[in-house]
Recover the amino acids of this structure.
């Protein structure tokens, strides 16, 4: 009972600090679409290929079916520093760079055994998010100058070991979302400065995460399904700044108005296979299929000012990611890892936009875990993503065409406590 009280005390503390982090920091798209795949140092350093193995408490998120396959109570806490860059080259020439930013997605996981077969766990993380910001006077400012989507996923879970070979797990997912979008307007105020529009809103949604893990000698197999989550943004606030008074008085614009919107975060189905080559070497292969087709449009509806309604086609397609990773036990205290992944973009030609200039990406990563004293370990990860050059020639939504080239550098640290 004392251990359970200790667990829930830590959970309450982590919920508070993670909520503060979500509200304070912009996140970004780090995987295909606007997924963020740095949800564990071990997983990140192995290219994200952990569906088929239970390596630490992050199994609560990656595959709760493996919760009862762990051999101890475990807590994991970590943070990544992600540094993306994007350059845009218009059809008439002249390169424009996105503002340089550092993003800090964090996570917390806890897992506790109730008995030899049953376990409970908690996952607190942000697997979806977006953060892009351009210069105020850049050529695409009437489409976007800033786009930020933050999410916080809270998932309590229950795991059960049916036998030594098969384990299952499931948990409800509670999601908080926050959006902030900015762009310039093609009108100028009395001071000669262009008007701007800013839309802010927040909402919540619910989903489920479930999985199965099976062990057959040196081979392990994992199946995981994370459901889609619909987040409704109700009574959001839109502010129109520096709009000429004549356009306010004739009803073209208002100073401020409330709006409604919604966004559906896609379901993800994964299969992972792990193979223990020998006592030192473990290799993993994962396939992730993301049901991005649910994100077909992004609409902003103004109940009291329908003339301001904005309907934006997105037409995302379902996408596949292939992930390969390895872990080598260099010594009793040190484990080193490496990973390689290909992540397919869900964004079709004709729908590439400045708030998410996405493309297929190749991911290379490496990391380590160093065991300390009394159950503590420290972890580190390095990451590089090469995003393919994306040329947009016939944009359906706004006819804003040109070439985007993006990349991402990342580094992460984490701690683990097992008892």
């Amino acid at each position: 009972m004392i251990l359970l009280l200790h667990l829930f005390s830590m959970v309450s503390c982590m919920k508070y600090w993670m909520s503060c982090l979500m509200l304070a920091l912009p996140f970004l798209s780090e995987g295909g679409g606007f997924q963020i795949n740095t949800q564990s140092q071990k997983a990140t350093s192995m290219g994200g290929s952990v569906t088929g193995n239970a390596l630490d408490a992050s199994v609560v998120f990656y595959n709760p079916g493996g919760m009862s396959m762990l051999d101890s109570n475990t807590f994991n806490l970590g943070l990544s520093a992600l540094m993306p860059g994007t350059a845009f080259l218009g059809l008439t020439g002249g390169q424009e760079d996105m503002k340089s930013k550092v993003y800090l997605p964090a996570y917390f996981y806890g897992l506790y055994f109730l008995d030899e077969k049953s376990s409970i766990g908690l996952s607190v993380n942000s697997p979806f998010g977006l953060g892009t910001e351009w210069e105020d006077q850049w050529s695409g400012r009437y489409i976007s100058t800033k786009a930020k989507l933050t999410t916080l996923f809270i998932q309590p879970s229950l795991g059960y070991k049916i036998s030594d070979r098969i384990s299952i797990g499931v948990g409800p997912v509670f999601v908080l979302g926050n959006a902030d979008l900015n762009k310039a307007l093609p009108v100028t105020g009395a001071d000669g400065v262009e008007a701007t529009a800013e839309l802010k809103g927040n909402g919540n949604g619910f989903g489920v995460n479930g999985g199965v893990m099976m062990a057959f000698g040196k081979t392990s197999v994992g199946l995981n399904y994370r459901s889609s989550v619909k987040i409704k943004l109700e009574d959001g606030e839109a502010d129109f700044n520096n709009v000429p008074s004549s356009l306010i008085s004739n009803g073209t614009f208002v100073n401020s108005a409330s709006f409604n919107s919604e966004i559906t975060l896609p379901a993800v189905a994964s299969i992972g296979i792990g193979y223990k080559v020998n006592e030192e070497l473990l290799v993993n292969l994962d396939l992730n299929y993301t049901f991005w087709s649910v994100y077909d449009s992004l609409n902003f509806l103004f109940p009291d000012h329908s003339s301001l309604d904005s309907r934006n086609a997105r037409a995302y397609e379902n996408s596949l990611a292939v992930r390969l990773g390895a872990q080598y036990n260099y010594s009793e205290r040190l484990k080193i890892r490496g990973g390689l992944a290909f992540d397919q973009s869900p964004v079709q030609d004709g729908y590439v936009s400045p708030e998410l200039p996405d493309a297929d990406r190749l991911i290379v990563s490496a990391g380590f875990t160093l065991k300390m004293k009394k159950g503590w370990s420290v972890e580190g990860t390095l990451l590089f993503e090469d995003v393919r050059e994306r040329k947009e020639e016939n944009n359906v939504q706004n006819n804003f065409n040109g070439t985007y080239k993006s990349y991402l550098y990342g580094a992460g640290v984490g701690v683990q406590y097992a008892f």
Q: What stands out?
A: Residues 197 and 240 are 5 Å apart (CA to CA).
